[in-house]
Design a protein that fits this description.
alpha/beta
């Protein structure tokens, strides 16, 4: 078993946010069809508006170092489902919910977590890039359980590290989310290697390709050339509360 590196987290804000999980407020970033700009989904993102300077990446890094990432991950997903339902986002949009592989340590607990996500929405369980190689058998089991509940599976930040490419055969995602660095450097040797593996996987499975980090029309054009049909990024609007996103779509 490969051990996860323990991130050095010194931020007081991160510690404060972790101690106040109940103050987390979900925001939602839209997922669009690149050819039409139609909004087809939303990804739930954790924010701590009452804790000044709280960086979600730092908060989750601290949670991993303390062995409580499963708890915070569950709390964030549960809050996101409630907020999305309350705002009416689950009526017609896919709901992307992050799932940390490093938090899969207890099969019974995982089943409870998955049961809590069953709702009227088309749930997309988004496997994050962190800790993909820690519990591969448990990750496979979790994915099978998620599919039994009708959830689609996405693999996040593909290309950000080698583990994401190796995880394609483990997770077998329906949606491959390209890391923003791939869109930023479309002609690099690294991008060429990543896209060779990704295109081979997409061709053999029919998976959908989603490009992250689209901030400009140039990024939009690059994503299309890479073969992406879905996209996320600031070009399509900042992450916002469920109510604000619904207003924007009305």
């Amino acid at each position: 078993m490969t051990a996860l590196p323990v991130a050095a987290v010194t931020s007081f804000a991160a510690r404060a946010a972790l101690g106040r999980i109940d103050s987390m407020v979900p925001c939602f970033q839209t997922v669009v069809a690149l050819h039409t700009s139609e909004v087809v989904g939303v990804e739930a993102l954790a924010r701590w508006p009452t804790v000044k300077g709280a960086d979600p990446a730092e908060v989750f890094a601290l949670a991993r170092s303390r062995g409580v990432v499963s708890d915070i991950d569950f709390a964030c997903r549960s809050a996101a489902v409630k907020a999305a339902q309350s705002a009416g986002l689950t009526d017609s949009l896919a709901l992307y919910l992050n799932f940390e592989p490093s938090g899969i340590v207890d099969d019974a607990c995982t089943e409870v977590h998955l049961d809590s996500l069953v709702c009227e929405a088309n749930v997309v369980l988004e496997i994050t890039e962190r800790g993909l190689d820690v519990h591969p058998d448990r990750l496979r089991a979790m994915v099978r359980s998620a599919r039994r509940r009708g959830f689609a599976i996405a693999l996040d930040d593909v290309g950000s590290n080698s583990a994401t490419l190796e995880a394609l055969s483990v997770v077998e995602p329906d949606i491959v989310k390209l890391d923003a660095s791939i869109v930023r450097r479309p002609k690099s040797l690294h991008t060429a290697r990543v896209m060779f593996a990704v295109r081979r996987y997409v061709a053999s499975t029919g998976a959908v390709l989603l490009a992250e980090g689209i901030e400009s029309e140039r990024d939009h054009d690059r994503a299309l050339k890479l073969g992406a049909t879905l996209g996320q990024g600031w070009l399509f609007g900042a992450a916002a509360s469920g109510t604000d996103v619904q207003t924007r779509l009305s």
